[in-house]
Amino acid sequence: MESLTHFDEQGRARMVDISEKDVTKRTAIARTAVTMRPETLQTIKEGRISKGDVLGVAQVAGIMAAKQTSAWIPMCHPIALTGVSIAFEDNGHDELYIEATVRTTGKTGVEMEALTAVSAAGLTVYDMCKVIDKDMVIGPTRLIEKTGGKSGDYRRNDEKSI
């Protein structure tokens, strides 16, 4: 296991210096789920939520959150993203799946941006639907895949992308 790099010699938090790292093409895919009552999912799919287009607003929220990740997560570097896409799928009953694919060409990865994107999209779904279903549950949230960088590629064995 690699050593933790966000601590200095005195054990204090620090932002890792990436100035010597190579620029590479990097991608990360993250996923979360929102579990809800079947009637809530149906209402979303039919576009009958009083606050508006739930999936459209959640998509924009996810993209905006990915772009602002370094403002939320203290040790994340600000990254110029080259692409962010948010996809939705459901199980036809009570679960909405949210997947973010984030891309950049840079010196550090975009895993945190992808995880932040799906988290914000899930929170947006909750916010827009809480008036009819306060029992919704968000998660699990997880990294599905990442490519590029010194540590190489990673892919969860137990999942496929949307």
Automatic annotation (TrEMBL):
Q: Supply the EC number(s).
A: 4.6.1.17
The active-site annotation reads D127
Give the binding site residues for substrate: M75, C76, H77, M112, E113
**Which Gene3D superfamilies does this UniProt record tie to the protein?**
Molybdopterin cofactor biosynthesis C (MoaC) domain
Q: In which pathway does it act?
A: Cofactor biosynthesis; molybdopterin biosynthesis
Which reactions are catalysed by this chain? (8S)-3',8-cyclo-7,8-dihydroguanosine 5'-triphosphate = cyclic pyranopterin phosphate + diphosphate
Under the heading PANTHER family, the entry gives: CYCLIC PYRANOPTERIN MONOPHOSPHATE SYNTHASE, MOLYBDOPTERIN COFACTOR SYNTHESIS PROTEIN A
Function per UniProt: Catalyzes the conversion of (8S)-3',8-cyclo-7,8-dihydroguanosine 5'-triphosphate to cyclic pyranopterin monophosphate (cPMP).
Q: What is this protein called?
A: Cyclic pyranopterin monophosphate synthase
Q: Which organism is it from?
A: Paenibacillus terricola
Its organism's taxonomic lineage begins at: Bacteria, Bacillati, Bacillota, Bacilli, Bacillales
- Point out the gene that encodes the protein: moaC
